[in-house]
Amino acid sequence: MTDTTIDQVDAIARAAKDAFAVTSRTHERTRADWLRRAADAIDADAEGLIALAADETALPASPRLAGELARTTAQLRLFAKVVEEGSYLEATIDHPDATATPPIPDLRRVLRPLGPVAVFAASNFPFAFSVAGGDTASALAVGCPVVVKAHPGHPETSRRMAGVVSAALAEAGAPAGVFALIEGFDAGLALVDHPAIRAVGFTGSVRGGRALLDRAAARPDPIPFYGELGSLNPVVITPAADAARGGALAEGLAGSFQLGAGQFCTKPGVVLVPEGSAVEAALPGLLAPQGRLLTPSIAEGFAAGADRVSGTPGVEVVAGDAAPGGTASRIAAVSAADLVAHADELLEEVFGPFTLLVRYRDDAERDAVLGAFDGNLTATLHHEASEDVTDLVTRLEGIAGRVLFAGWPTGVAVSWAQHHGGPWPSTNAQFTSVGATAVRRFQRPVAYQDAPEALLPDALRESNPLGIPRRVDGVLVLP
Amino acid sequence: MTDTTIDQVDAIARAAKDAFAVTSRTHERTRADWLRRAADAIDADAEGLIALAADETALPASPRLAGELARTTAQLRLFAKVVEEGSYLEATIDHPDATATPPIPDLRRVLRPLGPVAVFAASNFPFAFSVAGGDTASALAVGCPVVVKAHPGHPETSRRMAGVVSAALAEAGAPAGVFALIEGFDAGLALVDHPAIRAVGFTGSVRGGRALLDRAAARPDPIPFYGELGSLNPVVITPAADAARGGALAEGLAGSFQLGAGQFCTKPGVVLVPEGSAVEAALPGLLAPQGRLLTPSIAEGFAAGADRVSGTPGVEVVAGDAAPGGTASRIAAVSAADLVAHADELLEEVFGPFTLLVRYRDDAERDAVLGAFDGNLTATLHHEASEDVTDLVTRLEGIAGRVLFAGWPTGVAVSWAQHHGGPWPSTNAQFTSVGATAVRRFQRPVAYQDAPEALLPDALRESNPLGIPRRVDGVLVLP
Questions:
Q1: A56, A68, A183, A228: which is the annotated catalytic residue?
Q2: Do residues A40 and A139 share a domain?
Q3: Number of domain units in chain B
Q4: Which of A247, A330, A382, B434: disulfide with A241, CB 3.0–4.6 Å?
Q5: Residue B75 lies in a domain
Q6: Is residue A124 part of a domain?
């Protein structure tokens, strides 16, 4: 363990600020090139990176880590496309209109980079939500230097990845200071406090995220904090779906909640099933053996959480190892009434291979359970076409950022329409940490009034030299 | 004074939540109609509203308040257009792609309304930033019920306006609870704390805004707070501009900083002029007599602020009444060196008819002064085409959300490209409170994965029944 000192954090943050003077003026094509070069360099070192990560996290090298690495480089390349496409600049031009109330001068608005960004890496995705993950990629994409706080669960992987990214960026001509890695708890706090840092991206627990969010909000100049925190990812299985395909649903659920040893932010943690469901009956035979969890503290947290839920009045263990302190897969069940009565204890995320079935007898009980939820990253519905689920979908949409049908929430595509975020406590902002629109977190609008053409950013010049979509006098115009 | 009780606030916030179940499912055309009907009703009662506001605020009925009322109804009508145009939904469709890394399911993303919004009205715009102002209009536009906390500076105007808006919305068929007015300091705090409230819009002082921001952030479920707070709105006059048109610039400055008795959030509060400038020489003859300020506490704050700045070492009063405690217009001046030495005292907004000239001798002094600024709503440059101001514009862009050329910052157009926001403390978020994009503050993304067509919102159905611009498989498609 080599914690970064506070003085080093200061020097790194100042260097990031200096780099911002350069990165904030780079051409879109230049930054797209940086992202692609970083992706190529990561791919070139894939074997070494995956071996290190497998050793440090206990996640299987293949397909788990190999897939995650491929996802990570695909993500960098998607953001390169986003930058080149140019809509992310939200370029908007109003020509003068003296007849408007009040009169409109020549006004041109564009999104500019916010400044150096602090990124707190996650434990459970040593590549995709870590040193070169989505937060880093989306911040670099828009011209923000990045300082990553490594997760202590995979320090060697983090250092190797930082070396690969730093070298690739330097070779691509990016300025010194555009990217750096720090390590250590106190160094992370100093980073959030540093005046040069203009935003924070975080993936982790509600407790840790809340502490950093409060810290960012308490600065003399509060800065935006984008936390991807805890989520229960409720799944609703209707009586008709249970009757039609209970066995297949049980298999799907067993696969999803145990994937990666249940260490996904989108793990289905609470599943609403009809009383006496075929799903519940089929589950006991479907549990897989589990290896060690990511870190000793995650293993302790899992055991404590699974025991806490299992020991709550009305809860029974229906499958898996119920021995206190165990780390094997476990499924518990509770009635809708008991869930509602003990919502505070039962509706708290248990990170690891555990899920809670909630047995409901009718729509009213089901809706009462859903009413007890706070926000989630996802909500999933398994129903049959014969059922009217309009109101149910509205309820699910109210408590989640992504609503899935006939699927399982683990597995988050990286695409233009993806949204990985939801009401508190799953996130604390109306933004995503995955997908094309993640860049908006690190941009701020600037309007230019009556600016001479030569002083306008390229995106706003009359001739549209970037060839990007723009809104002109209220009308969207394609290049 | 009839303060709303805490019980009443609770009932009002609950009613807003109930209304949200309806407003969140309304058709775009329906909400556009609500906004236009409210605008028509306000126009129909213009005479009475203006008379009340003139009496309560001491602002002149014409052109000041008549213009503000026209601006307010134009704003409601602009948001009706924004809703109908549909880009504000950011509708995005990714069709399935099994070849992507990782594979992409059918994913469709749209922005949905956040929930009931609390709006804290401003003192200085009894119409445009008050009961039926931009925050209210943009929240209603996207389907969020609104509870307005009236500003105590114009209670009768607020009540009358609330009556007009409530009646118009009810006649248009909007649900009960969609709009309400509350009064009183404690009622406002209770509103920010209320679980049903999902966001806060605020226009006012840094101190008041910071207190509410901290309160919103400290909730068990933190909610977004959008504050439009304090701004110095720096103006830079170059030597060439001063030489070419110092007299005209002095007239422009005198008009801008005294407009509405200096009670604009965009008042030019600090003006960088070359040492020995023609602007400074011409100012003393240009001061206008001032009437009473908006409220007794604003008058006290103005006198205290103007006296504080005037009494800071190195500062001299160059025009206007320097008598302690006065409310007449005043212009002070200070050297660049003294400004930098006493930045904490001098770079604090004085709300009212006061501005501070900062005399600089060269570019280095000018840049040192700009380096002492925090964030601002605006920054203005007066230069001549013969001067290279590229670096200077970069500096201004770094400390402001709107950069103006050859103009004055008072007067904020309501349009698609407007941005009224800037780095802390002028605002605390990367959003605007004026212009089309103000709606984004009150929306959250939701993605639907593999949803049956019939369960999708209209905006995301394959046939595009709303006829709106959408991004399909990464490509922007016009209707």
A1: A228
A2: yes
A3: 2
A4: A382
A5: yes
A6: yes
